[in-house]
Amino acid sequence: MTSLRITSSRSPVWPVVLYIVGSLIVLASTLMASGSPRPLILLLHLGAFVAVTALGWLLLPGPKAAAGKALLHPFLLCLSAVTAAFILAYPWLNGAPPLIVALSTNDFDIIAGVRSRAISSDIAGFVLRMVVHGAAPVLILYLFLTTPRRFALGLVAAMVGGASLLLFKSMPLIMLTPLGFFAALERRWRLLAAVVATVAGILVCQVIATNPHLRGYAKLAVAHLVVTPAMADDARPSVGTVQAFRVSVAGLLDRAFKRPGEGVATWLALVPDKVPFSKGCSVRVIALWSGCEYRDLPREIYAIAYPDYAARGLRGSLDVPHYVQDYAMFGPLGLLFSGVAAAAGLLTLRLAAGEPHPAYFMAIVMTAF
Questions:
Q1: For residue 356, what are the β-bridge partners?
Q2: Following DSSP, what letter does each residue of 124-166 receive, concatenated?
Q3: Which of 19, 60, 161, 244 is the most buried (most CB within 10 A)?
């Protein structure tokens, strides 16, 4: 087992730096996609995050050892088991998982349709998103740090495997990045290589599943919804393994550095001009408590941004970082609040968990993206 506590040489400042760098990459990509200075409003979020984090580090007392550790460990193990079972079972709730369906067809409409319906807009879908983006990265790291390796591998495989079946490429990356960050800090190169290989293998498999021409199909039924605009032809010749790998990597780089900015630029162009601020009604808990009608903003904006797909019955979801969704709820105040909330999460973890390994901070950081 590895100690949860850190030494002065392993400062948790690195996740803070990575949060800032990640936010700036999203901002730069958004500015290039937008062509206007409007995305600079996102600096409100980053400024609030930096200011509150710096003040907290300077003014708050030093961390203390976590209390109730004897009870916390079995609780987290039970929570990990329940989380793994839920994520693994979710793709099968409505029949065959999207990944299996995508691999069994060469029709882009079928693939796009099954992916758009992979996560429902009901409570179960909301919980899944919260679990994958919030609890799972922390629990995966905790399992590797505190439990026998085989036990940890079993639960982690269930979590990551279940999420991978949904064809959302960001999910395995979000779930495993904190573990890779831990491996890099501790110079555990075999673990780091295993994490990188696992994420890369899943993403390449998902790209191949959603692009039939990479699987050797010479003629496609429909080819409208694909990873990159260059794949929009109705027919494609079969390609070799090397070319398929290159196209897969190009698609992944496109999603990592270009598509996030395009998505954010689309949100900022539509909110609030064409899509009014939701004032909290895009969060199910708030909608239920306040009595307002729930609004699924990612799908609402997708329908406006891609009317042709929406007309064909494709219920896509244009996802963006959490602080952009907070802006869509409350405007500039939402950006300020999200920055304060992200900083508060890091500071609370530092105070309550007895100065945990900085990789735990990385798990908190990943919830922003």
A1: 5
A2: HHHHHHHIIIIIHHHHHHHHHHHS-HHHHHHHHHHHHHHHHTT
A3: 19
Is the distance from CB of 230 to CB of 251 less than 8 angstroms? no
Tokens 């673990």, residue located: 191
Mean pLDDT for the stretch of residues 112-129: 80
Please report, as a single letter, which amino acid is at residue 44: L
Which residues lie below 8 Å from residue 175, measured CB to CB, with a gap of 6+?
132, 136, 137, 140, 159, 160, 163
Q: Is pLDDT of 305 > 70?
A: yes
Geometric angle at alpha carbon 172, from 248 and 243, rounded to 5°: 10
CB count, 10 Å around CB of 226?
A: 21
**Interacting residues of 79 by C-beta distance below 8 A, sequence separation 6+:** 135, 139
**Residue, of 11 and 321, whose pLDDT is higher:** 321
**How far apart, in whole angstroms, are the C-alpha atoms of residue 121 and residue 242?**
38
Q: Report, as an integer, the average pLDDT of 290-309.
A: 86
pTM over 0.85: no
- 8-state DSSP, 264: H
Per the listing, tokens 């959302």 go with 168
Q: Give the burial class of 331: count Cβ atoms within 10 A of its Cβ; 0-12 exposed, 13-18 middle, 19 or more buried.
A: middle
Peptide bond into 229 cis (omega under 30): no
Contacts of the segment 161-165: beta carbons below 8 A, 24+ positions apart: 161/88, 162/84, 162/87, 162/88, 162/89, 162/90, 162/91, 163/87, 163/132, 163/136, 164/99, 164/202, 164/205, 164/206, 165/91, 165/97, 165/98, 165/99, 165/100
Q: For residue range 213-224, what is the model confidence (pLDDT) as tens digits?
A: 777 654 443 333
Q: How many CA atoms are closer than 13 Å to the CA of 179, on its beta-carbon side?
A: 30
pLDDT of residue 355 exceeding 90, the answer is no
The structure tokens listed for 159 are 């979590």
3-state secondary structure of 59: helix
